[in-house]
Inverse folding.
C-alpha cells in the first residue's frame, strides 16, 4: 500500500508537524506554501491537532532569523510571527532522553540528529509525521514511521 | 494544567477521597482546562474556544506571509533549517550556517 493511502486509512487527529511545515506557512513563495496553508486550515477546523517535538521552537526561530537576515521577512515582524505560531497551541512532545533509538535512526537512515528526533517522536507517540522535507520522506520507509508530505496532507 | 498559587490551595477545601469537596465553579474563566467538573459541555466549550484562537492565529499567519519576499538566490526555508542543523558552530568564529548558505547561494547563482 503506498504511504499516502496508508495515511488516509489511519483515523488519527493528532499529527506531528515538523519545522519545515511551519516555515512553509511563513514564506509565501515556498514550493509547499499553498498546500501547507490548506493543511493549516485543517488545524483551524479541528480536523488535525498539531504536536511538535521539543526542538521545534529552536528550529523555527533559527529559520525565521535566517529569513530576516536574507530580507525575506521584516525583523520588526518577527515577534508577531513567533506569537502567532505559539498561538496555534501545538502540544510539545519532549525530546527523548534515550539516545539509543535516536542513534539507531541516525545510523540506519542517514538522518541528522535533529531529523532523527522528529522521526523518533513520531514513532514514540505512534503518530504520523507531516513534513515538507522530501529528503526526509525518502530516507524513512513507512515500516519505520509514517511520514506524510504536507503537499497531500490536507487533501 | 492550571497551576494555582500555593496560598489558594491552602485555603481551599482539601480533597478527601470520593467525598472530595467540589471547587466552586464559575463560568468566567473556564476556557482554561483544569477545573472540575469535566462535563461534555465544558470540554466542548474549551475545544471551540481553542479552535477560535487557532483560527485567529492562522489569519495572522496568512496576512504576515503575504508580506514576505522571495530569497534573492532562490534558497528555501528548508535550506535555512538544514544550514542551521548541519553547520551549528564555526570553530573559526562567526556564523557557520551563514557561510554555508552563502556558498549554497553562489552555487545556485552559478546554475541559473
Amino acid at each position: 500500500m503506498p504511504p499516502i493511502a496508508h495515511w488516509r486509512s489511519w483515523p488519527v487527529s493528532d499529527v506531528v508537524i515538523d519545522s519545515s511545515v511551519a516555515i512553509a506557512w511563513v514564506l509565501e513563495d515556498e514550493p509547499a506554501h499553498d498546500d501547507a496553508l490548506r493543511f493549516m486550515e485543517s488545524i483551524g477546523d479541528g480536523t488535525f491537532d498539531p504536536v511538535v517535538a521539543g526542538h521545534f521552537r529552536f528550529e523555527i526561530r533559527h529559520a525565521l532569523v535566517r529569513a530576516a537576515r536574507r530580507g525575506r521577512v521584516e525583523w520588526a515582524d518577527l515577534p508577531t510571527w513567533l506569537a502567532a505560531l505559539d498561538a496555534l497551541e501545538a502540544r510539545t512532545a519532549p525530546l527523548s532522553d534515550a539516545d539509543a533509538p535516536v542513534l539507531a535512526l541516525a545510523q540506519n537512515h542517514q538522518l541528522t540528529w535533529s531529523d532523527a528526533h522528529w522521526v523518533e517522536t513520531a514513532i514514540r507517540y505512534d503518530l504520523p509525521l507531516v513534513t515538507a522535507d522530501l529528503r526526509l520522506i525518502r530516507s524513512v520507509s513507512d515500516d519505520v514511521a509514517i511520514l506524510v508530505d504536507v503537499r497531500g496532507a490536507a487533501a | 494544567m492550571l497551576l494555582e498559587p500555593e496560598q489558594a490551595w491552602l485555603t481551599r477545601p482539601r480533597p478527601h477521597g470520593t467525598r472530595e469537596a467540589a471547587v466552586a465553579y464559575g463560568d468566567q474563566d473556564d476556557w482554561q482546562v483544569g477545573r472540575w467538573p469535566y462535563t461534555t459541555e465544558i470540554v466542548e466549550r474549551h475545544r471551540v474556544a481553542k479552535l477560535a484562537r487557532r483560527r485567529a492565529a492562522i489569519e495572522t499567519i496568512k496576512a504576515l506571509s503575504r508580506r514576505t519576499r522571495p530569497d534573492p538566490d532562490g534558497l528555501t526555508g528548508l535550506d535555512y533549517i538544514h544550514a542551521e542543523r548541519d553547520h551549528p558552530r564555526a570553530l573559526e568564529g562567526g556564523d557557520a550556517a551563514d557561510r554555508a548558505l552563502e556558498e549554497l547561494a553562489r552555487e545556485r547563482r552559478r546554475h541559473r
User: Anything to note?
Assistant: The two ends of chain B are 53 Å apart (CA to CA).
